[in-house]
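Quick question: what would this complex look like in 3D?
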Amino acid sequence: MSAADAITKLQGKRPLEEDTSELTPGKLPQKKYFRQRAHANPFSDHQLDYPVQPSDYDWSKHYPAHFPAAGTNGEASGKEVEFADIGCGYGGLLIALSPLFPSTLMLGMEIRVKVEEYVEKRIQALRSQNDSKGRDEAESYQNISVSRMNAMKFMPNFFKKGQLSKLFFLFPDPHFKKKKHKARIVTSTLLAEYAYVLRPNGILYTVTDVRDLHLWMVKHLDEHPLFERIPEEDLRDDPCVPCVMGETEEGKKVERNKGDKFLAVYRRLEKGKELGEWKGFKPIFEVGKDKDGEGDGEEEEAGDD
Ligand SMILES: C[S@@+](CC[C@H](N)C(=O)[O-])C[C@H]1O[C@@H](n2cnc3c(N)ncnc32)[C@H](O)[C@@H]1O
């Protein structure tokens, strides 16, 4: 018995359990070992590994079947990440989209350490379970990966101009309090970065169960000259829509609780649309009434690492 276990036994506590999935190839990790507090502060200085520019990044560690030589990036192999799931959480969307677009590279971006570790192990296990499948075959899971990063700071470090064809913002942290709205993942400033990495006609998906956040995202996207909303009737044949609505862990939770889901999907325009008179960034609707933001049920945030 280790010293730590002996102390634990003396204290009458259950010994700390650890995920052992990596000892058995193909064994899926268990979420219970990868739980972390709900929010990571996007303004903290997390210890993150990011490239100075997209061409410096080594994609072979993410997609070894597509970039067999270590140190290869998109320009060398002709393959590039095309879909990015921002705040991918436990990875449900990537796993649902992977077989639908088996030769498209997709990256989940997640700020929480443990959650990113879980997704990485989940993808490794799925790849091992399906190692007889060809690289571009559905369910080989060779086209999905995850990176621990802060999407509010480093998007242009990972993706060059116009690289992405789809960007997903599914059930983003709502940051209810007014003084925390600046931490929301969709803001006017950040939309300029998302427009930069999305190619013309690329698509940006947002889904949330929080009505105020939905209105916030729609308002900022409507105000942005490079985004135009796609009417819901034009989304009927989009195979991504059922996935964004129902395949993420958060989406499933909302469904279990019989909550609402609000979808808004935008096309990245080639040329900026004509806007009316500039009204500034001040919200045109009231999000919550209390001045100090008390009583909205959100925890205080702190850096988590
Ligand atoms: C409410 S969860 C939703 C997760 C997933 N999209 C889903 O629908 O199940 C929001 C996720 O975004 C992550 N996140 C928040 N801010 C982020 C940031 N700046 N960069 C990357 N991930 C972030 C959080 O850690 C969390 O896992």
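Answer marked as accepted. Strands lie at 81-86, 105-110, 144-148, 164-170, 198-208, 227-229, 262-268.
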